Amino acid sequence: MSAVPVVADVSYDALLDDPYPIFRRVRDTAPAVFVAAANLTLVTRFDDIMTIERDPATYSSDNPASLVNKVMGPTFMRKDGAEHAVGRKAIEPSFRPGTIKEHWAPKFAEICEGLIDSLIEAGEADLFPALAAPMASLSLMEMIGFKGMPWETLALWSQSLIDGAGNYSRDAEIERKAMEAGAGIDAAIEAVLDHHRAHPNPSILSSMVNADPPMPIEGIRANIKVIIGGGLNEPRDAILTLTLGLLSNPTQKKSVLDKPELWPNAFEEAVRWISPIGMYPRRVTRATDLSGVTLAEGLQIGLCVGAANRDDRRFADPDRFDVFRPRQSHLAFGAGAHFCAGTWVSRQTVGRIVVPMLFERLANLRLRDDAPPLLRGWVFRGPVSLPVRWDA
Asked: What phi, psi does 197 have (nearest 5°)?
């Protein structure tokens, strides 16, 4: 067994700009590597992350030092065993496949139609602010059970929270904005709780307050924050990533448009290629060996699924977007007991509603040669600007 090696010559900006060359270097160095710029030990290999996710006793989600706990509070995502199961069960009614198909899908389709209606005549737009961000925000607002709120407010809260949860550079202004967002969310929850208690419905807040037993207010606040963080940026970025992948590969785009049964494959490939949620933490509860590297008790590690989903030990030509890739499981939605509760919502919203409708209704949709896409992030990653044109 050997000690955890250190990579000290990588800047934090380099991680934000394009983490994949760094991920490749870290993957090839050791099973676990301390990356000084991130102030965190990263696990980047697919098989090692699967090993960790199968052993919650050794690699715990319960991590008091986690930035998620600091920014959002003690969410069920940072608990294991029975505590995690109770929190997850409280929101389960809102995420049932039947509820998604029969209740949420029609609402999401209506939101998407309205947003695209407002775009058609313009002939060009940046799809981040014009479609993906409002679509994800308005849809999540419906699911949570918030009322009368501008989509920009929820989007700002989400970005502030995920910036705070990924604030490994310890930036004070990022922390301040995250805490401010948390206070706003607490107030928004308080404003609608009585309504959801009195009128049970498929919303997440209704599921929480009408669970048996009802979720305590501290749990409601923390868990709504983690849902706003991951539940907005993940579908937003997946919409843009899937669109970018197809627009950058005209032959693949034609195949998907000619054969709609390929849409699910295209969605899964998009979130493997650029995983919207690229890293999440675990705590080592006892000294252990991970594929020949010694991890000390109490060590915080980051499971870097954005790197694992491009592990060439598992995926051939992993940096390439390829809707015809042989089907293999990926880690974009995590694994094990913490497999993302919103997976089926994202698959339905992104892969069956928004992106298919976008290509169907915006004729000759294409990238702009004079304004290339801009991608950013490593803990959370996706296009932050996707300028396009179409035939109005």
From this structure: -65, -40
Token pair 């598992």 in the structure block, residue: 314
* The amino acid at 163: D
> CA–CA separation, 224 vs 140, rounded Å?
11
Q: In whole numbers, what is the pLDDT of the chain averaged over residues? A: 93
| CB atoms inside a 10 Å sphere around CB 247 | 18
User: Shortest CA distance to 41 belongs to which of 14, 17, 90, 7?
Assistant: 7
What would the DSSP string read from start to end of 95-148? G-HHHIIIIIHHHHHHHHHHHHHTTGGG-EEEHIIIIIHHHHHHHHHHHHT--S
- CA distance linking residue 158 with residue 237, whole number of Å: 13
Burial of 121 (0-12, 13-18, 19+ CB in 10 A): exposed
pLDDT tops 80 at residue 64: no
Q: Are 331 and 23 in contact (CB under 8 A)?
A: no
Span 114-139, pLDDT tens digits? 999 999 999 999 999 999 999 999 99
Instruction: For residues 354 and 141, give the distance between their C-alpha atoms in angstroms, rounded to a whole number.
Output: 17
DSSP secondary structure code for residue 166 in this structure = T
pLDDT digits (tens, 9 = 90+) for 207-259: 999 998 899 999 999 999 989 988 899 999 999 999 999 999 999 999 999 99
Tokens 């029975």 sit on residue = 82
Q: Which tokens hold the place of 384? A: 């932050």
CA pair distance 22, 27, nearest whole angstrom:
9
Position 90 confidence tier, pLDDT thresholds 50, 70, 90: confident
The domains located in the chain, with CATH, are 6-364+377-389 (1.10.630.10)
Q: Which of 379, 322, 344 is nearest to 163 (CA)?
A: 379
CA 78 – CA 69 distance, rounded (Å): 7
Q: Distance between CA atoms of 78 and 282, rounded to whole angstroms?
A: 9
Q: Which residues contact 102 (CB under 8 A, 6 or more apart)?
A: none
- Contact between residue 202 and residue 213 where contact means Cβ atoms under 8 Å apart: no
Determine the Cα–Cα distance for residues 208 and 30; give it in Å rounded to an integer: 42
